[in-house]
Design goal:
Layout (H helix, E strand, L loop, with lengths): L1 H19 L4 E2 L2 H11 L6 H40 L4 H23 L4 H26 L3 H21 E2 L14 H20 L2
Antiparallel strand pairs: 1-2
Helix pairs in contact: 1-6, 1-7, 2-3, 3-4, 3-5, 3-6, 4-5, 5-6, 5-7
């Protein structure tokens, strides 16, 4: 359960801060219009549409994504971190696996990320390495890849399909939201430091 709830927690905090501080608005009208059409509820209130779509994304779309995510996570948390742990500490395992995982995504970011490539790569790398700490912690504690699969899927769904589409962009929003802005990496890094300390207490 924590594998699912932890991403929901940090993504909600990150986007909540973006909305509170005016770095982006809440309730993009184009997204709401598209969601009304998809749901067949063209006259429904914004809150009804948002609530229904969040439930559908967080449950149905989440389940649909598990197959492809599991295929990726079998490599990262099902194999790589266990092999690295034979050679190095828990902390080094998290850092090395996180950096490899980040670099693996670089070609896509460079090709499709836009004009601020260096900034986006830096934000993405910090986020991925921090996520790696938490995901590796749960992988070793549970001795299973499934917490990481749930974590990865929940992270993707809540950022890519829920919170980013709902955010009304201003001139500065792109520097703060999504996986290539500052806010999610900042929040998840704070959380990763907590899990870093937990790992030492747990003797991982």
């Amino acid at each position: 359960m924590a594998g699912y709830l932890v991403p929901v927690f940090y993504v909600s905090i990150a986007y909540g801060l973006v909305w509170i501080f005016g770095l982006g608005g809440m309730g993009d009208l184009e997204t709401l219009a598209e969601w009304r059409i998809e749901l067949g509820l063209t006259e429904a209130s914004a809150w009804v549409v948002i609530a229904l779509m969040i439930v559908l994304m967080a449950v149905v779309q989440f389940v649909k994504s598990l197959g492809s995510i599991a295929g990726e996570e079998i490599g990262w948390r099902g194999f790589l971190v266990w092999e690295l742990r034979k050679l190095m500490s828990f902390e080094a395992t998290c850092l090395v696996s996180g950096l490899i995982w980040a670099v693996w995504h670089y070609p896509v970011i460079i090709a499709y990320g836009g004009s601020n490539t260096a900034f986006q790569l830096a934000c993405f790398t910090v986020m991925i390495v921090s996520m790696s700490v938490i995901m590796t912690y749960y992988t070793f504690r549970a001795r299973s890849v499934w917490p990481a699969v749930m974590f990865h899927a929940a992270h993707n769904i809540h950022i890519q399909r829920i919170f980013t589409p709902l955010t009304l962009e201003t001139a500065q929003t792109e520097f703060w939201i999504d996986e290539y802005g500052l806010m999610v990496p900042l929040v998840v890094t704070v959380l990763a430091l907590i899990y870093w300390r937990r790992s030492r207490a747990a003797g991982l």
